[in-house]
């Protein structure tokens, strides 16, 4: 009986300690995640300031409807920001989207889009659970740099190199990942073209 009481007390103390540590670290973790998110946005649309639209929820709902209408299975829009120059003029957008179809699960991306040229300014993978050395290469510059300068219309991937126009080269040995990334990028572009594009 004494052993049971001792185990109960140890379990309660350990549970309270874990709860306290969780509470103490919750805000620093949230701050670090927000900083990482903004740094990724600065990568996809450099030299701009970001602003959350006043009608963000309405834009997100419209964006999700555009993704669904385009047929990107299970993809979601997670963020829409205005990109503004140093004079406060809106010059473009950052759209974050998620594809659930990666080899390891969700792949979250951010895409910068210039409103004047209708071109992608940059692309970044925000999070992924892909296999190291294969699908996880979706975060490497060799892959991500392919998106900048592409038209803000559907991106396709090709295997074996030789991408032209609005195509990118697939990651060798990681077709599922490449497909999921392309799907997430195209979801972001569907949001831009259906909800954000001016004129």
TrEMBL record:
InterPro entries: FMN-bd, Ion_transpt_RnfG/RsxG. GO terms for cellular component: plasma membrane. It is a single-pass membrane protein. GO terms for biological process: electron transport chain. One of its GO terms (molecular function) is FMN binding. It holds the Pfam family FMN_bind. Its EC number is 7.-.-.-. Residues 1-19 form the signal peptide. The modification FMN phosphoryl threonine is found at residue 175. It is found in: Cell membrane. Its main location: membrane. Keywords: Cell membrane, Electron transport, Flavoprotein, FMN, Membrane, Phosphoprotein, Signal, Translocase, Transmembrane, Transmembrane helix, Transport. Residues 102-192 form the FMN-binding domain. Its cofactor is FMN. It comes from the Bacteria. SMART domains: FMN_bind. It is an enzyme of class 7 (translocase). Belongs to the RnfG family. The complex is composed of six subunits: RnfA, RnfB, RnfC, RnfD, RnfE and RnfG. Part of a membrane-bound complex that couples electron transfer with translocation of ions across the membrane. This is Ion-translocating oxidoreductase complex subunit G. It comes from Candidatus Eubacterium faecale.
């Amino acid at each position: 009986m004494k052993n049971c009481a001792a185990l109960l007390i140890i379990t309660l103390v350990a549970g309270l300690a874990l709860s306290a540590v969780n509470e103490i670290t919750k805000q620093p973790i949230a701050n670090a995640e927000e900083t990482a998110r903004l740094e990724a946005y600065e990568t996809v649309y450099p030299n701009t300031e970001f602003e959350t639209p006043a009608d963000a929820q309405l834009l997100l709902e419209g964006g999700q409807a555009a993704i669904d209408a385009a047929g990107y299975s299970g993809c979601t829009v997670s963020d829409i920001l205005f990109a503004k120059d140093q004079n406060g003029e809106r010059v473009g957008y950052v759209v974050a989207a998620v594809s659930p179809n990666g080899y390891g699960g969700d792949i979250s991306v951010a895409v910068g889009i210039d409103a004047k040229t209708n071109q992608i300014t940059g692309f970044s993978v925000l999070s992924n659970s892909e296999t190291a050395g294969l699908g996880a290469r979706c975060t490497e510059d060799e892959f991500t740099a392919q998106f900048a300068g592409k038209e803000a219309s559907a991106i396709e991937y090709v295997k074996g190199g030789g991408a032209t126009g609005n195509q990118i080269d697939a990651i060798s040995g990681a077709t599922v990942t490449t497909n999921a990334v392309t799907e997430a990028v195209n979801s972001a572009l569907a949001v831009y073209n259906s909800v954000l594009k001016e004129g």
